[in-house]
Amino acid sequence: MILILLGPPGAGKGTQAERLVARFGIVQLSTGEMLRAAVAANTDLGRKAMTVLDRGDLVSDDIVIGIIADRIGQPDCAKGFILDGFPRTVAQAEALDAMLAEKGLSLKYVVSIEVDEKVLFDRIENRARETGGARSDDNAETLRKRLGVYREQTAPIIPYYRKRGILVTVDGMQSVDEVSRSLYVILG
Ligand code: AMP
Questions:
Q1: Superfamily of domain 2-187 in the CATH hierarchy
Q2: Which residue out of 48, 50, 53, 157 has the highest number of ligand 1 atoms within 8 Å of its CB and is therefore the one to mutate?
């Protein structure tokens, strides 16, 4: 099973992806986590990505497409995977299509978790408190920027998948457990 979880920052993609991993035995591929790991390890990629992440901008398509192309070829992805935070642009969505087609794979669903923007500020503030500020981009100023980037660059991939008939939407204003239940119903 290959899934994409879409939604603005704070929609709950990471939380729900973890639950789906446990339920379906597939892996979670989070480009944000991979980039943060590269920053923490101070690799060449990490040094390049750090200022971009802190600004709330997107890392270039070439870089993240390369990361995902490598990752989905690894053996633990054979049973399926959940993409959390990728694709984030139409160019990334097109590149993903080409990668999957080449491997004879196809997307099962693209799940858009829909949330009222106003609650995202509280959620991100909570996450910053709970994690002791582990993510340098979890603050109101960067969140505003990340939301603008989401609206302008990521939201256009929603119609891209809707046209293909694989888009499903979930009400992300429900509790975490209710969102999970909605996902389990959709995914069977
Ligand atoms: P996330 O953990 O998904 O919120 O991602 C954190 C940050 O990593 C984003 O604000 C971007 O700077 C970067 N990032 C993550 N995924 C992508 C992607 N698919 N394309 C470009 N930048 C990304």
A1: P-loop containing nucleotide triphosphate hydrolases (3.40.50.300)
A2: 53
Residue 45 alpha carbon to ligand 1 centre in Å:
13
Question: Is 127 one of the annotated active-site residues of the chain?
Answer: yes
Q: Name residues of the chain where pLDDT drops below 50.
A: none
Sequence spans of domains, the chain: 2-187
pLDDT given for residue 36 in this prediction: 97
Determine the distance separating the centroid of ligand 1 and the alpha carbon of 29, expressed in angstroms.
12
pLDDT at residue 26, rounded to an integer: 96
- CA 147 to each of CA 9, 20, 106, 175: distance values in angstroms, whole numbers, following the listed order: 7, 25, 29, 21
- Write out pLDDT tens, residues 24-67: 999 999 999 999 999 999 999 999 999 999 999 999 999 999 99
Protein residue with least CA distance to atom 2, ligand 1: 32
